[in-house]
Automatic annotation (TrEMBL):
Protein EC: 2.6.1.-
GO molecular function, one term: L-aspartate:2-oxoglutarate aminotransferase activity
Catalyzed chemical reaction(s): L-aspartate + 2-oxoglutarate = oxaloacetate + L-glutamate
Cofactor: pyridoxal 5'-phosphate
Group of enzyme by EC: transferase
Family stated for the protein in its record: Belongs to the class-I pyridoxal-phosphate-dependent aminotransferase family.
Chain ranges of the Aminotransferase class I/classII large domain: 23-357
Keywords: Aminotransferase, Pyridoxal phosphate, Transferase
Keyword Transit peptide among UniProt keywords: no
InterPro entries: Aminotransferase_I/II_large, AspAT/PAT-like, NHTrfase_class1_PyrdxlP-BS, PyrdxlP-dep_Trfase, PyrdxlP-dep_Trfase_major, PyrdxlP-dep_Trfase_small
Protein name as it appears in the record: Aminotransferase
Amino acid sequence: MKRFETRNAHFDRLVNTPGLKWLGQNTNHIPAHPAVIDAMVACARDEQFHVYAPPAGLEALRAGIVADVGLPAQAALVSDGAVASLYHVCHTLLRAGDEFITTDPTWNWPMAFARSVGATVTQIPIYGAEYNYRLDPARLAAAITPRTKMIYIVDPNNPLGVACTKAEIEEVAKIARTAGAWLVHDCTYRDFAHEHHLAASIYPERTITIYSFSKWLGLAGLRVGAIIADPEVLEQLAAAPPNNLGSSILSQRAALAGLAIKAEWFPQVLDITRRNQAMIYEALPRVEGLSMPVYPSNGNFIVIECSASGVQPEALAAAYGERGIMIRQGAYHTPNFGDRFVKVSTSVPQVWVEEFLELLPAMMERARGINLDTPLF
């Protein structure tokens, strides 16, 4: 079977596994606000799905997204989720021979999209104490070449959970402007950050902000997000979007309802997320060879270093999989540093994290005897 079919079949088994605890996808599993459920039920009951949505998205949703990020001079183009936004941006703005610069680790799919149009990809390592697990703008500046067309940063970083300081984002924006490059600021996890700064407020003319409803609102399976940019840039992107008949009307109704209750509902999600992170951080010293290099995390996930334990991340992920818990092996994010860590999602019910920690010593021992041919997603 082809590789993608094997991978898809394995993920299909996960999706169809009753009671699986999703601690590896950064997805938000906190129960949704009733207003979001009601909006979807009403959409289905009234059979609104017979019509196409507006090509750029419902006007109320577009306005709500722009208001949510606080960029009143910019505009939003609703997409089928953040990854579709990134696909569209890369395929519209990059050409063969261009250079796409990002970090290592990062979110992998934009690199695949850049390569698919013939662009080259340059990654700047940030994993390790020697880099303080973050991007030094001076290292970015040193990596710029005449071919640099796009700089992509996930901020907060997935999987590390570091977020750019105001000074860092100002420098990154300055570097992008000097290079005349597009700055793609993937802000998927910004709502979980202790502090966050938008590059578009500094470099509005060529910054593209990627917005997601998958994480803060928990709509990962509904696929709805947005591209936020200068209106003239958005005109270029709106000329031939992949979803030119509009994103799912049900998804947009859910997103619109989510924005209306965000101030009331999301603080509880954030509190649960941070308490779960703290539980893991406090428990790790009791397990030899494990540590959390970035704490507190600015995402809804944490990274656990396991290289000092002698346990391979794939084996630990497989061990937990046997117990109905999905965590993410580091190689999913980076082949260069993936042997050092696993990633665990924390916007989940507290009992999931308690079970994860209760099993941890036994799972470490189980991992030492696991066949690494075990399939993982």
